[in-house]
Amino acid sequence: MEAVRRKLKVLGKRYSMEIIALLSEGPRYISQLSEELGAPYATIQNRIGELERVGLVEVVDAVDEASKRAVRLVRGVNFRLEISPRVIRELWMGEAEARIPHRLGISIHPRDDEGLRERRWKPSEKRAIDN
Question: pTM surpassing 0.85?
Answer without folding.
Answer: no
